[in-house]
Write a structure and sequence with these properties.
By secondary structure, the protein is of the alpha+beta class. The chain is built from nine helices and twelve strands. The protein folds into two domains: 107 residues, no CATH class; 130 residues, no CATH class. A three-stranded antiparallel beta sheet has the order 1-6-3. Strands 9-8-12 form a three-stranded antiparallel beta sheet.
Length: 252
């Protein structure tokens, strides 16, 4: 099960002051490294720690890198699965979560790591506008996708904010049959819209308190702060993935 220390450290060190930016940069990870296969929740935890590459001790040793003295551990969250072999077909049953320890690349030394150059991606608003019947007046048709490695942000204007806010509400309601009555609807929509603006290279200068909002949501649905955070980010991931499937493509 998750240790008390792991829960406390994760909650304390998530980038609550700018959670949408952490989500945006976590959504498009550096390819061909272990964290590219992590959940969005774990990549947000990693980005919040100020690194785009974190691995377990054995994974670092496999690439001839070793921990520096005083290296600080970073806790992530992994499902604890039980294989039920008594059924006709073996099924995986979620028993809970555990807290593996990883270390940031900046806390290691050894052979240099060659990272794959991120593919240049483009965000196309046209198919989104057609599918969800949105007005593109005053909105760019194409945005270069901003990543954690290469960012160039300009201040978002009100039309862009309104476009993405309206878009994610429609996507959320499409994804969840009970969308309009869900307690996390507005919170997921806000985080998704702000993250999309960052993904499109827009700085939103947001000063809200998402920590308090997630805590309040957790109280409403009787979840701990960490469980509420994981649930909300998981649903943000669904919204962003649905949008990206329609709108994000690589530039040749």
């Amino acid at each position: 099960m998750l240790s008390v220390r792991a829960v406390n450290e994760i909650v304390q060190h998530v980038n609550w002051s700018d959670l949408p930016r952490a989500i945006a940069y976590a959504k498009f990870p550096v390819e061909d490294i272990p964290s590219s296969r992590w959940s969005l929740v774990n990549r947000v935890i990693m980005i919040s720690a100020g690194t785009f590459d974190a691995r377990g001790l054995g994974q670092w040793k496999a690439v001839q890198r070793y921990l520096i003295r005083g290296a600080r551990p970073l806790f992530i969250v992994a499902p604890q699965v039980h294989h039920d072999k008594e059924q006709v077909e073996t099924k995986e049953v979620l028993k809970g979560f555990v807290s593996p320890v990883v270390y940031a690349v900046g806390h290691t030394y050894g052979d240099p790591i060659e990272y794959k150059e991120p593919a240049k991606k483009q965000f196309n608003t046209i198919p989104l506008a057609l599918r969800y019947k949105l007005d593109l007046k005053g909105i760019n048709k194409f945005f270069p996708v901003s990543t954690y490695v290469d960012e160039s942000l300009v201040l978002a204007d009100e039309l862009e904010k309104q476009f993405f806010w309206t878009l994610v509400l429609k996507v959320f309601d499409d994804l969840f049959q009970d969308g309009r009555s869900r307690k996390d609807r507005l919170l997921v929509a806000e985080l998704s819209a702000l993250a999309l603006l960052y993904i499109c290279g827009r700085n939103v200068m947001y000063c809200g308190n998402h920590f308090s909002m997630i805590q309040a949501y957790g109280r409403d649905v009787r979840l701990s702060t960490l469980a509420a955070f994981m649930t909300v980010v998981k649903n943000v991931d669904k919204v962003l993935s649905a949008v990206a499937e329609i709108s994000v493509g690589e530039l040749s």
